[in-house]
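Lab meeting, item 3. Inverse folding demo.
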């Protein structure tokens, strides 16, 4: 059973397939949403969502990581009773944490919206976040129990259905009640999210109860269990909290600093909404594999460590880095080519194509950071991840404070900070993974070969795209033809450099 649970490829492949459908659906959901509510409301929505991330960090993120990590270890050793005790204990701790935090947010929503977020129109959305977080926490605990136990199909399918429910609920509420004031529109969006979380949390709880099975094993002493939960939850939660606090502060400060630089308040919120609510989600559209990869990588590394198999851990990490580079770099290169036309066609906003090249670099580096951080979490180095993430957040916030208010700089200052902070995090995470595992760095396989192939595909694709458009094709068929040709060219360039895609993406890693 341990041998089977150490194989992540088939689970990652299944999750990637469903994630692709979910990502496409989520992207079109965001396109419809942006057309219905406009860039300014999207900016207000982007101000509210970091608060949701902060609340989740305070209450659920660390405990969720503990469920995934400890469940993997207990089941690898055949102790199902201890795994069940872990999720029960984490649920109780989540409720104890959410009650005071939710009370503070609801009672202080007016002050938070005005003084911290800088816009009173976010108050209703803040209040409705609390039931949304409560349901999301319950959902995530049971979802990560499944992933930690190596059962990927039930939570993955529920997550896909969740996208359909969210899309239908939010769009239906907007169509029924629009037009409204911006504050009520944000509230309608969050209310639709609450309805979606009701579905997903209830479904996963029912599936968990049905598939739990006999509680074999001796269980675990309550004091030992509590100590092990907190040893994982505290550093992971603190890392997430500090990172999300910095992210929330950064999000709240960007419109304010733009206003200081002479931009109108409405235009400042709109610029923020275009970059963070449209451009970045568009760039994340091709990265459908990353969440699936991280979900299966962390528990597999935890199992490898629990079974005393460092060689398997090194192989898993190396294969994951190679896969991320191989898949991410061409996606970002081609998004730079077709992104401006895609953004105008989808969002009806000219500014979606601004800063596309540096933001594509940020997205590519972020994927590397994500998989390296997941590797460190699986190896038990949660504090290291926390420190690196905190440093990156501080650097990003410093750029926002120093550059965004400057006339003529504006959002370019935020983008520059994203490039520098993400590059710093990537280098530090790689260094720590090498130290923790003894992993041999492979610059050619990880970066040079896919990077050169992606650059060639992007440059040739850009030329072909312009030729096809000048020849009279509309952007969509021209883009499809360009992507198909560039993909073939990318694979040929990899083959010419001796990189066998099938070996990198094989299912037995």
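The presenter then showed the designed sequence:
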């Amino acid at each position: 059973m341990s041998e089977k649970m150490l194989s992540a490829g088939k689970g990652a492949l299944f999750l990637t397939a469903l994630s692709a459908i979910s990502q496409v659906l989520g992207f079109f959901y965001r396109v419809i949403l942006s057309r219905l509510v406009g860039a300014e409301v999207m900016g207000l929505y982007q101000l509210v969502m970091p608060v949701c991330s902060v609340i989740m960090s305070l209450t659920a993120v660390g405990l969720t990581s503990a469920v995934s990590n400890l469940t993997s270890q207990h089941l690898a050793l055949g102790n199902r009773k201890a795994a069940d005790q872990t999720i029960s204990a984490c649920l109780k701790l989540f409720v104890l944490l959410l009650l005071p935090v939710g009370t503070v947010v609801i009672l202080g929503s007016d002050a938070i919206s005005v003084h911290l977020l800088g816009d009173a129109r976010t108050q209703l959305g803040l209040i409705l976040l609390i039931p949304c977080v409560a349901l999301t926490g319950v959902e995530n605990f049971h979802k990560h129990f499944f992933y930690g136990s190596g059962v990927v199909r039930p939570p993955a399918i529920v997550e896909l259905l969740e996208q359909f429910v969210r899309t239908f609920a939010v769009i239906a509420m907007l169509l029924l009640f629009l037009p409204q004031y911006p504050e009520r529109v944000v509230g309608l969006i969050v209310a639709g999210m609450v309805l979606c979380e009701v579905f997903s949390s209830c479904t996963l709880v029912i599936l968990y109860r049905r598939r739990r099975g006999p509680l074999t094993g001796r269980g675990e002493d309550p004091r030992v269990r509590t100590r092990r939960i907190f040893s994982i939850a505290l550093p992971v939660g603190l890392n997430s909290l500090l990172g999300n606090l910095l992210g929330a502060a950064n999000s709240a400060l960007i419109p304010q600093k733009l206003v200081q630089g002479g931009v109108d308040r409405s235009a400042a919120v709109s610029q923020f909404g275009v970059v963070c609510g449209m451009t970045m989600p568009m760039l994340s559209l091709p990265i459908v594999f990353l969440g699936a990869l991280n979900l299966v990588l962390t528990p597999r590394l935890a199992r490898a460590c629990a079974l005393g198999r460092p060689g398997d851990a090194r192989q898993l990490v190396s294969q994951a880095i190679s896969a991320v580079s191989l898949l991410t770099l061409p996606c970002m290169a081609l998004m730079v080519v077709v992104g401006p036309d895609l953004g105008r066609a989808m969002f009806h906003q000219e500014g979606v194509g601004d800063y596309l090249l540096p933001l594509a670099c940020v997205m590519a580096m972020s994927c590397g950071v994500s998989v390296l951080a997941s590797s460190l979490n699986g190896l038990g180095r949660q504090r290291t991840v926390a420190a690196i993430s905190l440093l990156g957040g501080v650097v990003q916030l410093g750029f926002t404070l120093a550059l965004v208010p400057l006339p003529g700089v504006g959002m370019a200052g935020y983008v520059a900070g994203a490039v520098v902070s993400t590059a710093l995090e990537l280098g530090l995470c790689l260094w720590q993974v090498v130290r923790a595992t003894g992993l041999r760095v492979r610059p050619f396989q990880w970066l040079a070969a896919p990077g050169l192939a992606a650059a060639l595909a992007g440059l040739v694709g850009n030329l072909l795209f312009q030729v096809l458009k000048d020849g009279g094709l509309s952007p969509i068929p021209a883009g499809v033809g360009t992507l198909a040709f560039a993909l073939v060219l990318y694979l040929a360039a990899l083959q010419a450099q001796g990189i066998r895609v099938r070996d990198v993406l094989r299912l037995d890693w």
